[in-house]
Amino acid sequence: MTGHRPFDTLRERMTPERRARNAAATSDMLTKMALHELRQAREKTQQDVARALHVNQPAVAKLEQRADIYVSNLRRYIEALGGTLEITARFPDASVSITNFSDLAADKS
């Protein structure tokens, strides 16, 4: 096809500064995802998550669209994707991992 080039060829023509900006933007995008994007990145369907959570698929769709969610529901969702939820409070001078949410999960087991 005329006018089409492999991305590697285009990348080679970029300045080092532009490649660095692109790498930073890509990294930023990969660290900030909506729940449905995270699920898709983990190659799971809503039905897969629903089975793991013992709910129906519409409940997963509703959960993914919520702007406000219980930490316990978020933890269960992340675990259904095969991960663990860690909550960190970030301040200008320090970061602190909040542990009482994981303590509550262990207490319920």
Total of helices: 7
> What is the makeup of the main sheet?
2 strands, antiparallel
Give the strand order of the largest sheet, numbering strands 1, 2, ... along the chain. 1-2
SSE class: mainly alpha
Q: What helical percentage do the residues reach?
A: 55-70%
Order of helices and strands: HHHHHHEEH
Task: Give a nutshell description of this structure.
This protein is mostly helical.
SSE layout and pairings?
Blueprint: H1 7-13, H2 16-31, H3 35-41, H4 46-53, H5 57-65, H6 71-80, E1 87-90, E2 95-98, H7 100-108
Antiparallel strand pairs: 1-2
Description:
Helix content is 61%, strand content 7%. The chain has 109 residues and is mainly alpha-helical. It has a single domain, classed as 434 Repressor (Amino-terminal Domain) (Orthogonal Bundle), CATH 1.10.260. The protein has a two-stranded antiparallel sheet. The longest helix has 16 residues, at 16-31. It is flat, with a radius of gyration of 19 Å.
